[in-house]
Fold this sequence. Notes:
With 946 residues, this protein is α/β, with parallel strands linked by helices. The chain contains 38 helices and 25 strands.
Amino acid sequence: MLLARCVGDPARVTTEVPRRVAAAHDASPYLFTPRAVVRAATAAEVGALMAGARTAGVPLTLRSGGTSLAGQAGGEGVLVDVRSHWRAAEVLDDGLRIRLQPGLTVRQANARLARYGRRLGPDPASESACTIGGLVANNSSGMNCGTRDNAYRTMESLQFVLPSGTVVDTADPGADEALRAREPELHAGLLRLRDRVRGSAASRATVERLFSMKNTMGYGLNAFLDHTEPADVLAHLMIGSEGTLGFVGEAVFRTVPLLPHTATGLLVLPGLAEATDALPALLAAGARTAELLDAASLRVAQHAPDAVDALRGLRVERHAALLVEFAEDSAELLEERMTAVRPVLDRLPAVGDTRLVRDPRVRARLWHLRKGLYTAVAGARRPGTTALLEDIAVPMERLTATCDGLSGLFERYGYQDAVVFGHARDGNLHFMLTQDFDSAREVERYARFTDAMVDLVLDAGGTLKAEHGTGRAMAPFVRRQYGDELYEVMRELKRLCDPHGVLNPGVLLEDDPTAHLRSFKSVPEIDPAVDACVECGYCEPVCPTADATTTPRQRIALRREIALATAAGDDERRRALQADYAYAAVDSCAADSLCVTACPVAIDTGAVMKRLRAERHGAAAQRAGAAVARHWAGTVKGVRATLNTAHAAPGPAVRAATGAARRLGASGLVPAWADDIPRGGPARPGPRRSAGARAVFFAACIGSVFAPQAVAREASPGATGGASEGAVGSAAAFLRLCERAGVPVTVPELSGLCCGTPWQSKGYTDGHRTMAARTLDTLWKATGHGRLPVVCDASSCTHGLEQLADALPESERSRFAALDFVDSVVFTAEHLLPALPEPRRLRSLALHPTCSTVHLGAGDALRTVAAAVSEEVTVPDSWGCCAFAGDRGLLHPEITATATAAQAAEITSRAHDAYASCNRTCEMGMTRATGRPYRHVLELLDAATA
């Protein structure tokens, strides 16, 4: 295959239907299924793929995060993934600059800069998911950066690959001469276009007017005015070119200060005119952010469960609001700023108070109001419709009239649920509406609305795209916005860079006036739990299987595709998708549910995959699961004995036996044996009653199934599953810490009890119900009917205990609600640390928070305990769920290997005195990934205070 010869590993090229279908879906309303998907790993491979696509006569599209909204991230030819192998970052000059590859998200880049008190200039709202590749390709900006700190203005140098295969690095002082030597026609053509734009007074005026605003419509022709040498001009034209001119493999950005002292306020005003009239004075007084919300936005925000005080009881009529924020480098400077702005605030015709608040919790609620608009509108839309988020910009003096005009268009074309909000300081408006694309009538309505909106914006002297990129949605209107002359400049630029039209045809430039009305997605109803999905991709950076099998977005998209194939009677496609789905979506899912923490419409794809596992089990399997729950004590003993027997037997024999069992169909029950699987663990602590007990201790059974990690002389890189003397385990460590701190705890009879996670995660609902009932009865009595908290020593088990309510009948849920579950790390930080002897601190500790600490909100407590143990605590910048997920890492080791690859490389790049987590199987997963001995952080604290 031609494409396979373009990359180092042919396995990174796939033409399988499920992989192509999964990769086709992005955040836009368009859908293009590629012929092949390739995970490129180097700039040379991308260049070879461009040449291969040209030879094959098929288009090529570059894809990183897939969060773009206008259709620029999809195509019907070769889709090249430039995220998976492109996540390197290098901080330069103490954070003043940073070198980035395209696959890193903006949030991940900023995490590396935060310790230097810096951040990237662009601050898109999608920063948790949008990648550097998209930030460059779309010239991203955001709420704070305006036109001063966007990608175009803060880029220092680029390394990019042209369709010819030529690599240009503008950090090289000789870049322009090299471009002239390798691409003489392109070099000369850029000079010609530069002089053409500069030589026309009308062209200069148009470019200067449009780029005085935020503007991502068409190519960034301001580069011809701002830069002189063709290499510099071309580098800046690459920004905002949406993958149509070349591939940017590396970018160096100048960073901006991270201002830590902030005050925020929601200013409700009588109407849009009053809000826009207030802007000049607020901006002059130093407001760094000014977000506009129209009356429809305020009505939506009023109905949120946690509506802010300023909106409670307000009868919204024609009101509008400004969410303003002031930020400075120090508390003193912020105080001076607040004093200076107070007279401005007092003169506003505000409805309600004009307080500016500094409390992080209150500020978070105010920003949730703004960012929650997308959640509210997208989540409440009618099933089967698409949520569209559009953006425009107009001169500030036309902002009010444009808002009013948009409201009139919403009413005229029947978009009653539409809302307008945006970055008022930049004249940049976003509007959201929901649209059905499955009928010709609905598409026609959308077409008429779009034409009217184009008239409104261009008549106001504005731009049809301010931040989100031209894509396919606005490509037919570029000529109208710029005029024939500048449109021909863009056409010539495209011909010079991509003479064969290989890169992303139909994106950014399009002569067909109706092209934006074709190739829409169908969004069938499949499941109330996931129907609200807008395929935004916010879930993907937190998904541990993203680089191995599928992501939450893809799991949902594939179910939609199966439904569409079924409805169309395409049995061959349906069978292919269903056969793949079992492993690629359901079985491989870690079910850690980190996706719900990132999803703007709160979809828990992990929970859905667990439900699908349950639906596959027949009555006999469910009865077996319940039987295991009833005889759990014996099961645990049996597993411990089996592990010890396996360690006593020759390794090759055990591997052969488990391999044979897996090949016979037991791959979902029997792990692939490896020497690092621990021996059986110690028995759980026996019952104890303590006078004046402060808590009930529920020792996790996982600490009994698996022995604690080896320590001391055996705790060297490459340590196996054996346990040496001194490895006490988390349960024993917690009890010893309690005794040392003088905090008595009670331990009930735990034999046969469990948090229920093994049954819940595998979909054995009968067993989950059986175990939930037994565990509730014991804990109800042990806690004195909820008087004492229940403390558990494994974070995933604490989380599992919190979820037992799902398996209980309604009649028992009031009892369950009275119970308070606390992770042992949290209990230790709050109650034990203050009473313990001063710990003997290590120099450095590598810490692995678990996905459950995220759900439990226990991250700060984990870091507090870790800081008590070590002077330096390092959480990898590339931290993520290890995907060991109870037994997933044993049954599907390839998932954990992929999920941990980046953080393992980061951890092993330097030596640490110790390695810690707070869950036994996560410790196993990270030990396997790094070859370093991970232990429960409480074991380290126990040793440090003994």
